[in-house]
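Task: fold both queries, return tokens.
Query 1:
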Amino acid sequence: MDTHLIPGFNVLANPTGPLCNLNCSYCYYLEKEALFCDSKSFAMDTSTLEIFTRKYIHEQPGKQVNFVWQGGEPTLLGIDYYKTALSLQRKYGQGKEIMNSLQTNGTLLTDAWCQFFKDNNFLIGISIDGPEEVHDRYRLDKGGKGSFKKVMHGMKLLKKHGVEFNTLTVINSLNVENPVPLYNFLKEEGSGFIQFIPLVYPLNSWSVPAVKFGQFLTAVFDEWVKRDVGKYFVQTFDAALANEIGVPAGVCLFNGQCGNCIAIEHNGDVFSCDHFVDIAHKLGNIHHASFKNMLEMSSQKRFGDEKFDDLPEECHRCNVYNYCRGECPKNRVLKGINGKNNLNYLCEGYKLFFRHIGPYMKFMANEILHQRSPANVMYR
């Protein structure tokens, strides 16, 4: 979800660990439960919550601190839990501007939840994969039933209470076939900020074919650039424009380095990234170390540098590297010309897409340079 990245570092909090009320077919996080076999409860206790809050606010060098709650399913903890979290944020706030974002599957939302979000200015991310027949193919509950109707009810409540929300859509081998209808569906349901997340791992029949993903993004872009610039925001398009201008992309995927966006689990364990929650990438525990010390560990610095240092030769010669930046290291699973498995699975799709949008990005960047609206691209 859009976490409005700020200078310094960011922590993604998984206060329920991998615990979730859904059983999505493609979810990579449910398997993390085995990593915490000693846990008696998949809930961040008050002591850990307080230490996390105090250290995160105190060590954040910027004037803004963004708490990002995800999971698992963070609403399983109940409203009172987040009231406690807000109380601790006020206690240790130090005059900083504190924001809260929460990523949810939307199935447990109620009027009370949505009023709480509205009253406390939460930004909500809703996971939805498209219309019912598409969404319910993979996003199932523990009983094997589709979750679409409950998600739509949750979105209706968010709109009723005027809660700011955006959508996250996992692009898989099914919904990749209908890019424009899917895009229009999300717009019609009130999503002003849209994130498309390509399903790569695990590589199987659910995974999105790389070239089709590039074609998907291209089709959506062609629709967006005709009539929606400045009205609807698609994260991948925003990141491309940022890279064209020469400012941070706003999302780690398309930055040249990573390593400043770490993850904390329910028991206080801290990991290099929420896509690398495993023994090899454990940095420590918040009960025993500061975020600053963990971020400055040689292993974490190496993790961040490897995004560029481990690029395959193809990337160094690629004319769209400025947009792609090698994307996420977790997707570098193909063998490059040097024989190493460090070429991004989505490479061919991204080349197709970024080469297509390049002229438009250059036009919009020039408009911004001359203090004109990038939305003028719709009238060129």
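Query 1 returned. Query 2:
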Amino acid sequence: MVTEALPVIEAFGLTKVFKDFWMRPRITAVDTLDLRVVPQQVFGLLGPNGSGKSTTIKMLLGLLFPTRGKVSVFGKLPTEVATKQRIGYLPEETYLYRYLNARETLDYYGRIFHLDRHTRNKRIDMLLEMVGLDSVQRRVVGEYSKGMQRRIGLAQALINDPELLILDEPTSGLDPIGTKQIKDLILHLRERGKTVLLSSHLLADVEDVCDRVTILYGGRKRAEGTCDELLAIEGTRMIETDELRPETIAKIEKLIQDEEGKAIRKVEQPRQKLETLFLNIVHEAQAEGLATGGAKAGGAVAEFLARDAHMPEAVDGGALIDQLVTVDQQQAARPPLPDEAKAEPVAPAGPDGSVLDSLTRSEPVAPAQDEADPPADKKKTDVDSTVIDDLL
């Protein structure tokens, strides 16, 4: 018996009413909305400006409380911290510290998710290359264009390798190259087992990537289904062939008239999308080595995002085991201090016991070669700032 996967997002009768100063209902932004988003799905919220998309997202993130109805994310309340740790969010407006550069910005968000320094640096390198900002990573983000700020905003939404990615107008301000890259990334994340909630009023973006779509207007759901279900035109059929001679088309039309009593409505030359033409021109220019300012086209998907969902990042298992065994042997060989006999053992915070050992050992931390020896009374208390940084 195959059990159905639990939904990532589930909402029943979700309603949000904004009130005025006297607590009188002023506007109903979301009205009795039902949503169900399953794992490994790209779900689109489509609607014009003011249809309630951003308000719905803020309730899913726990930033707004519903007036009525229920909502859960991963089966829990959106306000729980454990739930937020599994989410990546790109807001409609990219709120960044304008005096930090791109690398410092991503490092800041990595610290919020308690990523160690090595993991932060590794992911920052990959993300900056992926979004095409590695060549301008030392420039403060206040000097970035809107499109470049959207790119760094997307990178910060992915720094924690989220299971659920919520994107509010992700292609706003991006050129066609960046737009195509965002859509390709969304499809890649779905293939790797992640769930994406995409909010947009750009019809082409939603049609290209979404498995299922909900169309909102005035805070209410007006339609829902797959793109094929919503866009199919009943009572018509389209036949596509290679180029035909006019006399062959005339024979086909006569056959249709004789057999079906119907006529060909239209014969036209197929066209490629303007996006396809634009990207082909850009790729040709890049192949010729023409230079451009600002963001680049972007690189491959970051390695930590390319692996299957819920799989740990690659580690050297043999080296880790040898390191842990060595630490245990050193601790066993060292005679216990008087205070240690009374203290209860404390497990290290992570797999690397050397960090805890460096804090608890009695011998002083060795200074760098270019530094003067500290006073003898401070040798036991001074700790390398990088140790504290790793603990944070």
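Both queries returned. Flag for query 2: Confidence is low (pLDDT under 50) at residues 345-356, 358-374, 376-385.
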